[in-house]
């Protein structure tokens, strides 16, 4: 198991603003990919496909993988990320109608993690 953090950040653009929002989010990728602990940071947009269906209208999604909680939280506290959420998600004139950010772990709830350096008798 790992200490990785998997983040899914979903966005619903205001009417007529999806293309513009996608470009604003893509602009966040290069600097974020340079962050220590960033393993994956890809903005995607929903496409139609007969093998898949979607029950909501969050059409833009960031798929993120972070080395650990510390790296993820450092990312969230970067000025560029905080500014994005303030200007695009919270401010009245922003491009985002609604957003949803969730984090996940691949460790079971009661994972018996090995203790590094432990001595066994």
From TrEMBL:
PROSITE patterns: ABM (PS51725). Gene3D superfamilies: 3.30.70.100. Residues 5-101 form the ABM domain. It comes from Hydrogenimonas cancrithermarum. InterPro entries: ABM_dom, Dimeric_a/b-barrel. The keyword Oxidoreductase applies. The keyword Cell wall biogenesis/degradation does not apply. GO terms for molecular function: monooxygenase activity. Keywords: Monooxygenase, Oxidoreductase. This is Antibiotic biosynthesis monooxygenase.
């Amino acid at each position: 198991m790992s200490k990785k953090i998997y983040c899914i950040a979903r966005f619903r653009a205001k009417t007529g603003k999806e293309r513009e929002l996608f470009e604003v989010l893509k602009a966040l990728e290069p600097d974020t990919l340079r962050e220590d602990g960033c393993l994956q940071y890809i903005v995607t947009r929903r496409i139609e496909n007969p093998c898949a269906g979607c029950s909501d209208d969050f059409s833009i999604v960031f798929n993120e993988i972070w080395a650990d909680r510390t790296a993820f939280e450092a990312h969230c506290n970067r000025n560029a990320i905080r500014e994005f959420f303030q200007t695009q998600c919270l401010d009245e004139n922003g491009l985002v109608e609604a957003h949803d950010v969730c984090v996940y772990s691949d460790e079971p709830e009661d994972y018996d993690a090995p203790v590094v350096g432990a001595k066994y008798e």
